[in-house]
Write a structure and sequence with these properties.
The structure is a single chain. By secondary structure, the chain is an alpha/beta fold. Helices cover 29% and strands 18% of the residues. It has helices at residues 25-37, 68-71, 89-95, 97-106, 113-119; strands spanning 15-19, 53-57, 73-77, 84-88, 122-124, 138-139. The strands form two sheets. A four-stranded parallel β-sheet has the order 5-2-1-6, with helices on one face.
C-alpha cells in the first residue's frame, strides 16, 4: 500500500467570515488558527498548506476577559537604550484593533516558512464591511 500525500495544488480553498463581536480573544484566535492551518479537514498534514482563508470583521468589538484590557500590554523594543515601548491593550484596541487579533493568531501558527505563508490567509477589518464579497465567504461556526 502507498501512503496518500496531499499536495498544495490539490486543496480547494474556501473563504470563511467570522464576526468577532463579543468573542473571547483566545478562543477566537485558536479557532481561526486551526482553520487557517487546515486542521478541520480530513486531508490535514502538518507540513502542507491545506487551510482556508478567514476574514474577521468587527475586530474592535473583540472581548478581553478579566482585567486584561488594562493589565495586558503590547511591547516593542527597538534594541536601543531606552527604546522599550509598552502600550496597554485598551489604548491599542482604540488605535489598531486589527493588530490584536493578528498577533494572537500569528502566535498560534508555526514559526517557520509555512507559518509566514499561512499568516497571509488572515484578513482582519475594524468594522462590519470587508472587500472580499466576490469570494463569497461563508460564516464560520465557532
Amino acid at each position: 500500500m502507498r501512503t496518500a500525500t496531499t499536495k498544495k495544488q490539490d486543496v480547494e480553498r474556501r473563504w470563511f467570515v467570522v464576526d468577532a463581536t463579543g468573542q473571547p480573544l483566545g478562543r477566537l484566535a485558536s479557532r481561526i488558527a486551526s482553520v487557517i492551518r487546515g486542521k478541520h479537514r480530513p486531508v490535514f498534514q502538518p507540513h502542507v498548506d491545506t487551510g482556508d482563508f478567514v476574514v474577521v470583521v468587527n475586530a474592535e468589538k473583540v472581548l478581553l476577559t478579566g482585567d486584561k484590557l488594562r493589565q495586558k500590554r503590547w511591547y516593542h523594543y527597538s534594541r536601543y537604550p531606552g527604546g522599550l515601548r509598552a502600550e496597554p491593550y485598551d489604548a491599542l484596541i482604540r488605535r489598531r484593533p486589527e493588530w490584536i487579533i493578528e498577533k494572537a493568531v500569528y502566535g498560534m501558527l508555526p514559526k517557520n516558512r509555512l507559518g509566514r505563508t499561512l499568516h497571509r490567509k488572515l484578513k482582519v477589518y475594524r468594522g462590519p464591511r470587508h472587500p472580499h464579497a466576490a469570494q463569497k465567504p461563508q460564516p464560520l461556526p465557532l
